[in-house]
Amino acid sequence: MVTFVHATMVEVLKIPESDRLVRVIEYDSNNFYPPINASDKYALITISMFPGRSLESKKLLYQKLCQGLETFGFSPTDTRIIINEIPAENWGLRGGISGDELL
């Protein structure tokens, strides 16, 4: 699944292929409570990124992620995707360089 999420972000958001900071965490049902009407196969995807992508590209990302997650047994109605757009100056990268200095 990690490979699929990364490939979708490369395709839709145009992140570099080498940007492989994707993490998948699976929780035991005793440690995660999905929404009341969701099945026990619920997916929550949180993406942190710099601001600036178009609304159209975000909508395409949502659609492609939901469609692709179906192949892993997740229903699109049981998938929630949240994008956190964090200003570049709020990222400390490459040994403490502010992200806005790298853009």
Automatic annotation (TrEMBL):
It comes from the Bacteria. InterPro entries: Tauto_MSAD, Tautomerase/MIF_sf. Gene3D superfamilies: Macrophage Migration Inhibitory Factor. It holds the Pfam family Tautomerase_2. This is Tautomerase family protein.
